[in-house]
Write a structure and sequence with these properties.
Helices cover 44% and strands 23% of the residues. The protein is α+β, with helices and mostly antiparallel strands and 209 residues long. It folds into 2 domains: 4-141, Jelly Rolls (Sandwich); 143-205, Orthogonal Bundle (Arc Repressor Mutant, subunit A). Strands 2-6-4-5 form a 4-stranded antiparallel beta sheet, covered by helices on one side. A hairpin with a 2-residue loop joins strand 9 (196-199) and strand 10. Helix 4 (108-114) packs across helix 5 (116-142) and helix 7 (169-175) packs across helix 8 (180-192). The chain is elongated, with a radius of gyration of 19 Å. The N and C termini lie far apart (41 Å).
Length: 209
């Protein structure tokens, strides 16, 4: 696999050579669980195309969406779990068919010392994921649920590249840690405001959204 096209502006040539030698590449179907909470992580994923949902589950199994990984992004949680050899605090599931580069645990510390571009990539990933977590905390703490729902739908449309979302009310409720009845009521309110159209297990966002 030639990684030059994807990473030549990110990593130095020597690191690209090591990536070619030591990384593995997989195409993962949509809906595949890559990482479970409590699992020991042996590889770090970098998304080449597609997207991965990162979330947490509480003791009752309720899901809280944290953020998404998009192309050319990796997960800060996996970096820290790999380097410190701690069990995973998150769950990772592919949102669509996703092409992923997997890096072995053994190279993490070596590359941090050896390649400035890798250290920069890791620190930028941690910073960006931290900012996304802060946005999630702000939404939960300070925003009304209807505002959180609008943000959630816009993010989904951004990730899929389409205003037509294949989502059930139950699925949205699970990801937003609320109930289907509440989500259905809020979606109907948004439809009455001409911000979206509701179909069976589909939602079309309109221009006023």
């Amino acid at each position: 696999m030639n990684l030059y096209h994807s990473f030549h502006t990110v990593f130095e040539p020597e690191l690209l050579e090591e990536l070619e030698q030591k990384a593995s590449y997989s195409t993962i179907p949509a809906g595949t669980k890559l990482i479970s909470m409590g699992q020991m992580i042996r590889q770090v994923p970098i998304v080449l195309s597609g997207s991965i949902k990162i979330s947490r589950l509480d003791e009752e199994g309720k899901e809280l969406l944290l953020y998404y990984l998009n192309p050319m992004e990796s997960c800060a949680m996996t970096f820290t779990c790999c380097m410190e050899q701690f069990p995973s605090d998150i769950e990772a599931v592919t949102e669509e068919e996703t092409h992923i580069l997997f890096l072995p645990l053994q190279v993490m510390d070596q590359w941090m010392m050896k390649y400035p571009s890798w250290k920069t990539f890791v620190m930028r990933t941690i910073r960006e994921r931290f900012h996304e977590l802060m946005k999630t905390v702000d939404q939960i703490a300070f925003q009304q649920l209807d505002e959180r729902l609008v943000h959630y739908l816009k993010e989904k449309a951004k990730i899929t590249g389409s205003p037509l979302l294949n989502l059930s009310h139950e699925h949205i409720a699970t990801e937003m840690a609320t109930t289907r009845v509440v989500i259905s009521r809020l979606l109907k309110k948004l439809e009455n405001q001409k911000k979206l159209l509701l179909y069976r297990n589909q939602i079309r966002l309109l221009g006023d959204m």
